[in-house]
Amino acid sequence: MKITLLTVHRLGTSPEASLARDYAARATATGRALGLGPVEIIEVESRKPGKAAEAEVLMAQITALGPAWLAVCDEHGTARKSRDLASHIGRLRDDGHRRMILIIGGADGLDASLLASAKETIAFGIQTWPHALARVMLAEQIYRATTILAGSPYHRD
Question: pTM of the entire structure?
Answer without folding.
Answer: 0.95
